[in-house]
Amino acid sequence: MKDFNGKVVYIVGGSSGIGLATAKALAAEGAHIVIFARRKEHLEQALGQIKSARVSSSQRLSYMQVDVSVWDEVKAVMSRAVTEFGVPDVLINCAGRAYPRVFEEISYQQFTETMEVNFYGIWHTTAVLVPYMKENGGHIVNVSSIAGFLGLFGYTDYSASKFAIIGFSEALRSELKQYGITVSVLCPPDTDTPGFHEENKTKPEETRAISAGAKLRQPDEIARALIDGMKKGEMYIIPGFDGRLIFLLKRLFPGLVEFVMDSTIKRVQAQRRNGGSPQKETAGG
Ligand SMILES: NC(=O)c1ccc[n+]([C@@H]2O[C@H](COP(=O)([O-])OP(=O)(O)OC[C@H]3O[C@@H](n4cnc5c(N)ncnc54)[C@H](OP(=O)(O)O)[C@@H]3O)[C@@H](O)[C@H]2O)c1
User: Fold this and answer.
1) What is the pLDDT of residue 214?
2) Which of 10, 121, 196, 224 could form a Cys-Cys staple with 68, CB 3.0–4.6 A?
């Protein structure tokens, strides 16, 4: 898709962070936008910002409340959205969460909730909307992470959900091509969003140390990379040089990547044993 002017775009998780930045950027390109999330007050505030970015008063901008992890709710809300706003040309599945902890500290409830929001949520919206989108074609973007192709310390539940998104997206891509639907997966690096600040509250020192050297990106940069990647029809959209380098190294030299991560983890754990203070700065997953 080269031109978003007049296109109907659904952004799930569009009230904050990367989803909101993408909604504003697409409003500035003339798209009609519906954002979806759970909290009404955040949706209302976000909609105000999206309205400020629009280029024409004829653009339809709206929001709907939904919890993507609840199948019956998604079915009802997405079906209503299609009736009220039209079939989406673009679906961006951006809702997600991360509570990094070491495996043995992750409760079964945290694990299931992470899977239900990050992965089942994408399954749910896609399952409802693909039958409609098949008619005219379009573009689906599923938001994964660097932790979706690189298993990271502290992210056993999160990485599992984000790896699942990539497998799902690759398989879906090959099935939907015949209907003119492009499927992409966005793998953002650490990005300065409310979700990222929440994530930092539980992040183990090892996880912080692994990503300490990475540049913290701004949501607007990620939105720009996402839109440029969609225009080029890229399957993998990986913003920033660091992320693309890790992607390449993980594919070509997985042992090297493991060695670097293991050395960092060992150093942090040795410091902790010796009572030293491990790396404090952060730029997470
Ligand atoms: N920021 C990063 O460093 C980073 C890095 C890699 C990948 N990512 C991924 O990028 C995506 C966006 O992250 P972000 O940092 O921009 O997060 P954010 O600022 O926390 O925004 C998350 C959005 O998802 C919505 N959401 C969360 N749970 C939901 C649910 N159950 N149903 C419906 N909507 C829900 C939130 O609204 P409500 O809470 O009101 O529902 C909000 O609109 C996530 O998938 C995240 O895993 C982020």
Assistant:
1) 87
2) 121
Distance of alpha carbon 283 from alpha carbon 211, whole angstroms? 5
The atom of ligand 1 lying closest to the CA of 35 is: 43
Catalytically active residues are 144, 158, 162
Distance CA 74, CA 82 (A): 12
Q: Which atom of ligand 1 is nearest to the CA of 195?
A: 20
**Which residues, in sequence order, are bridge partners of residue 10?**
34, 91
Residues within 6 Å of ligand 1 by CB: 13, 15-19, 37-39, 42, 66-69, 94-98, 117, 143, 145, 188, 190-191, 193-196
Residue nearest to atom 32 of ligand 1 (CA): 67
Closest ligand 1 atom to 67 CA: 32
For the domain made up of 8-273, the CATH class stated in words is: alpha beta
Burial 110-138 (b: 16+ CB within 10 A, else e): bbebbbbbbbbbbbbbbebbbebbeeeeb
In this prediction, residue 250 carries a pLDDT of 96
**Model pTM?**
0.95
Domain ranges (residues) in the chain = 8-273
- Pull the structure tokens for residue 52: 């400020």
Average pLDDT of the chain?
Answer: 95
Helices 254-273/241-252 angle, 10° precision: 110
Phi (first) and psi of residue 212, to 5 degrees: -60, -35
Per the DSSP assignment, residues forming a β-bridge with 31 are none
Q: Coil, helix or strand for 155?
A: strand
283 has pLDDT over 70? no
**pLDDT tens profile 211-270:** 998 899 999 999 999 999 999 999 999 999 999 999 999 999 999 999 999 999 999 999
